[in-house]
User: Fold this.
Amino acid sequence: MKIFKGSSLIIILFLSFILSAQTKQIESVKKESSITYQLTHPFHEIESISKEAQSNITIDIGKKEIKQVSVQVDVTTFNSGNSNRDSHAMEVIDALSYPEANFTSTNISQNGDSLKVYGKLTFHGITKDIVISASSKWTNNKLIVNGKFGISLTAFKVERPSLLMIPVKDELKFSIVQAFNF
Assistant:
């Protein structure tokens, strides 16, 4: 009986080691990753991009599942191609007081390659629950995640910028592309 109990313990430890070996935390490849925001005004649309986000995920390689996501980006790294516009955007969001935006997942629902990533976004000093709709593409040693979500500027207490006394739309739309090597 003692031999059986000892063998069972060894098997359980071995299986737990194998299962934990499948889970891996990895950081995104910055040169292949980006976060873009789109701001809409009745007269034009503005897009600004950052390639400086630090994204970390925990994945189960064997099951091809994403278990956890965290993203941090310095808001001053967004570039619209117009330095005056970018400076004004940093004033509007008070980048000196709130230099980072952070997202941490609380739950991830996966159906094939489609993902719903639920989590908490901290922006402009305020934390709100958001849902990111995304897709994942797994290859031999790479994972690429594309996602989209929107936020309300007023919900995050950001005053909507105006052009010719007409404010931009309240929704700030985001597109995310994150590449990971494993």
